[in-house]
Amino acid sequence: MHKDEAKGAAKDIAGSVKEAAGKATGNERLEAEGAAERLEGKVQKGVGAVKDAARDALRK
């Protein structure tokens, strides 16, 4: 697992918590920030996966 995947997973989880808190309190801004953070985390996880795949391909 690449470090970007781990950092992305953490952002995804933190974003989920923020988004849920925003929904629960009716705070639309917090909900939107959480959704954006989740998306950022998913992208970062994808980048890490691509880096891992590229590294594995170069090692063969």
Short account of what is shown:
The protein is mainly α. It is built from 2 helices and no strands.
Structure keywords:
92% helix, 60 residues, mainly alpha, single chain, 2 helices
Describe this structure in words.
By secondary structure, this protein is mainly α. The protein contains two helices and no strands. It has helices at 3-25, 28-59. Helix 1 packs antiparallel against helix 2 (28-59). The longest helix has 32 residues, at 28-59. 13% of the residues are buried. The mean pLDDT is 93.
Layout of secondary structure:
Layout: H1 3-25, H2 28-59
Helix pairs in contact: 1-2
Average pLDDT for all residues? 93
End-to-end separation: 18 Å
Low-confidence stretches: none
Radius of gyration: 15 Å
Shape type = rod-shaped
